[in-house]
Amino acid sequence: MRLTNREKGSMLMSITDTLLKEQMEEDRKVKTMNTAKRMIWVTFRKEGIHKYPAALDDPKLKTGDWDDVSFLGYPHRHIFHFKVAISVTHNDRDIEFIQFKRWLERLYDDKTLELDYKSCEMMSDDLYEKIDEKYPGREVHIDISEDGENGAHIEYNK
Predict the structure, then answer these.
(1) Are 46 and 82 in contact (CB under 8 A)?
(2) d(CA 157, CA 87)
(3) CB 127 within 8 A of CB 44
(4) Domain 39-156 of CATH type 3.40.630.10
(5) Where in the chain are the domains?
(6) Are 113 and 84 in contact (CB under 8 A)?
(7) pLDDT tens digit string along 57-91?
(8) Cys staple from 73: which of 51, 56, 106, 154, with CB 3.0 to 4.6 Å?
(9) Could you give the C-alpha distances from 24 to 13, 18, 27, 31, 33, in angstroms and in order?
(10) Cα distances (Å, whole numbers) of residue 33 to 5, 70, 96, 139
């Protein structure tokens, strides 16, 4: 069976359309992979003693009513929950997250960093300084909460 010129043209158009669609899909995937922001994150917990001295005297805090938080002026225990995310440049363990987590935990275990008597925001800033020393120029997001309930989220951009 012989194809007419019209049928040949139609087949050629169909093949060309298919190849163009495949190329466009491949280009889209490459663009997505090259422009995606990549971050890894780890979590860990540390016990600490917290105290907010202003709570004892500040009338906005020591209200004597339902919103009284004057008890925060005395030392009290918390389990601080950390979630730390850091930018990576590729998908093949640019930063290995188990090693990253262990290193972060050791900063507190070795007393390089202290968390007692600091706000979550203060702890976050201290932690970021150490991360930036070891991994300069990376975007870092740090969440620290008291007992997994209330806390701070700070994004340190490149």
Answers:
(1) yes
(2) 10
(3) no
(4) no
(5) 1-36, 39-156
(6) no
(7) 999 999 999 999 999 999 999 999 999 999 999 88
(8) 56
(9) 16, 10, 5, 10, 14
(10) 42, 51, 20, 18
